[in-house]
Amino acid sequence: MTEPLRQGATIGILGGGQLGRMLSVAASRLGLRCHVYEPGEAPPAGHVADAVTTAPYEDTAALEAFAASVDVITYEFENIPTAALDTLQALCPIRPGREALRVSQDRLTEKTFLTDLGLKTAPFADITDAESLTQALEIIGTPSILKTRRFGYDGKGQARINTPEEAAAAIEEMRGAPAILEGFVEFSCEISVIAARSADGAVACFDPGENIHSEGILRTTTVPARLSQAQRTDAVLLAAKILNALNYVGVMGVELFVTPQGLLVNEIAPRVHNSGHWTQNGCTIDQFEQHIRAVANWPLGDGSRFADVQMENLIGDDLDKLPELATEADTAIHLYGKDAVKAGRKMGHVNRIIRG
Amino acid sequence: MTEPLRQGATIGILGGGQLGRMLSVAASRLGLRCHVYEPGEAPPAGHVADAVTTAPYEDTAALEAFAASVDVITYEFENIPTAALDTLQALCPIRPGREALRVSQDRLTEKTFLTDLGLKTAPFADITDAESLTQALEIIGTPSILKTRRFGYDGKGQARINTPEEAAAAIEEMRGAPAILEGFVEFSCEISVIAARSADGAVACFDPGENIHSEGILRTTTVPARLSQAQRTDAVLLAAKILNALNYVGVMGVELFVTPQGLLVNEIAPRVHNSGHWTQNGCTIDQFEQHIRAVANWPLGDGSRFADVQMENLIGDDLDKLPELATEADTAIHLYGKDAVKAGRKMGHVNRIIRG
């Protein structure tokens, strides 16, 4: 695939959540259709996609039919089973590519990749059993955090270890899954760089945003982040280094800790990212369109920021604030159309333009 | 219907063209689904709507099933057959209401409504036959323009009369349809006010845009329009007067001529309007979301403009400029996903942010 996708072409999206939904909407602006593949019933992206396949990732026939119906495949989450990717890749290009998935699907592989690139991360250690945890705790110390190497999100699959005595309980929580111990780092703030790379190797980054988490879930992202110009430049160069090393095509979310020792990479996500939602109302081309442009072989768009923005996630009952939010000036509402409100479930977000 | 529509509710849209498409996308931002009713095969709005009914407006069973499946009905064009509206209205509220459709479906009714409101229009006369045209030409003079009273758009169903001798040919072109003769007016420019009114009677207007037409088709809209502050105020008050008189709910496009004698109303369209597309990249809430908010009983959004914008339609072969447009900074592309490129067919538009 070297020509830009033209009107009427179809992008396949693995995953039918809110990210797939907003990717579909962005693709429609470029005249492209989307076909969503999602095991769960009634996915939010299905309301706006041209087609939906409801099937598990183990259904080879469904995967093959899906791949045959689309021009390129992308995804809204990184934990796609490897066998499914093998089936799809034989029939259709997948962007971002397999290397990005391989690296980001496993926290240990990811941290090793980053340190091999010369980037800094929090101290970490491979944990295979109680003994390796004991040894790692002697080096990394407490408090620290034990995480499953794979399949964690929004604080799930994580156990905080405040004292060495809590090690046994923490490893219990991993339920035998391979794990990684991460040291805590002192940081003044957490920021995200939403970076994009096109098929021809051009890289563009949105301005870094500053993130506030609570209970392991992102609450707000504010742009601009409180950074010096030097830090801003470092953040962008560092993100570009990661994308280039992976020969990446698409948008990536790069979470960084701002520390006295410089920027530490917390996590990379090979997809559009919650901390980039502010771009919908702060930029002419948002992260979703930027990702679609990259995946569809278009030139990257102009991601320059024209406003200060605070993105706030609407989680669970936050939806009750809707009547009030709808009357706020300078506030754009983005809801995901999810049927059931559950505690901790991301139901939507708002982007507030901050007037100087 | 007095409560705001909640997540998962469905808006029915009559018409599956680009306006229905962009309305669907806007509705998705508010967590709402759309069901498009369109007689033509493969409508552009179908790529992004949750459901599509393909059936003619004469299919009562299809209309009834459609009405039963949605919470409120709106439309992207005004020329919906009256019988279809009767069927739908018995089952589901239609917004904007019937009065706006009755007035705007007929150029003579519309002009009479406007002048009864005390607003100025170009001189006009009811034309039923050759004799009434001869009489009208004596008063209105030439050049003037003969138009069918109903079903005209983008310059179709119109005949320009440069001299009285051309009257016979012009009336021939009407093919027996009731017609209206309109005098030409000297104007310095044509502007549009995109005005919105909510169910509780609140009115909000976007900044007037300045339109350039060619061959009867809108080419560009630029905001801000070249208007004095007094003209700007007049334009907004005049639009509000129209919406209030119709007890209107939704967005309306009001085209005005700027003349030495003040503002003349050229045309009203009871729907989102091509000349309001700039709001997608110049405002936090665009005309499409504003319309959905009104129709869904939400409070109107903040339509304040944060940038100067020029909207340019991509018509027919203009699509060939796409590779270049995609590399322009500050330019947002909006394509409609139409399969066939035809001369005079609106294929998309671009919004260019104008930096000071």
TrEMBL record, chains A, B:
- Which Gene Ontology BP terms does the record give? 'de novo' IMP biosynthetic process
- Tell me which residues bind ATP: 107, 147, 152-158, 182-185, 190, 213, 266-267
Pathway(s) per entry? Purine metabolism; IMP biosynthesis via de novo pathway; 5-amino-1-(5-phospho-D-ribosyl)imidazole-4-carboxylate from 5-amino-1-(5-phospho-D-ribosyl)imidazole (N5-CAIR route): step 1/2
* Record's keyword terms, sorted: ATP-binding, Ligase, Nucleotide-binding, Purine biosynthesis
Q: What class of enzyme is it?
A: ligase
Any Pfam family matching the protein: ATP-grasp
Its EC number is 6.3.4.18
Q: Name one GO molecular function term.
A: metal ion binding
Instruction: Give residue ranges for domain ATP-grasp.
Output: 111-296
Family that this chain belongs to = Belongs to the PurK/PurT family.
Q: What does this protein do?
A: Catalyzes the ATP-dependent conversion of 5-aminoimidazole ribonucleotide (AIR) and HCO(3)(-) to N5-carboxyaminoimidazole ribonucleotide (N5-CAIR).
What is this protein's name?
N5-carboxyaminoimidazole ribonucleotide synthase
Q: What is the lineage of its organism?
A: Bacteria, Pseudomonadati, Pseudomonadota, Alphaproteobacteria, Rhodobacterales
Gene that encodes the chain: purK
